[in-house]
Amino acid sequence: MRQYSHAEELINNLPYVLMAALGAAIFLVVLDGSAWAWIMGATYLAYGIAGAFWIMVFVCPFCRYWDTSSCPCGYGLIAARLRKKADTECFNEKFKRHIPVIVPLWIIPALAGIPALISSFSWLLLALLVVFALDAYLILPLVATQHGCKDCPQKDTCPWMSRKGRPVVATSTPLAKTSSS
Questions:
Q1: What is the pLDDT of residues 116-158, one digit of tens each?
Q2: How many Cβ atoms are within 10 Å of 105's Cβ, its own excluded?
């Protein structure tokens, strides 16, 4: 089994971290730096962090990478400190059940930013939305599938990576990828 260095784990997590930071920045711009902007930005960041821990608690214990350095994002080692190992045969079921918890992270910034951009155009907001979309919908899935998931022995049966053994083009996170970790 391939072992990942801390630097490789960082590379796998950077697109997700960037997505969370960009989402928070979108709230700061949309709400014009008001107190609500900071509250919403911080809430979105907290949701991103909570989402990562949700995956570690409810999906990672069912993964073959639990408590190993073979997890591309390092979640497997963290998950081992949070929960005991569970039956790996339930991985797909747990993955499908718990991934929807983090899916709104890809949607919420667009729901906040696009109407604001339409009602009051801002180059800064447009740039944030474009970079957010590129990161969340292109870079993050590419890094996950081409770097982290590439060597995963579960990729052929993973609900995210395959459908009947064929790779699936999907919008997901290192967390989703990591949940296979």
A1: 999 999 999 999 999 999 999 999 999 888 877 777 767 777 7
A2: 20
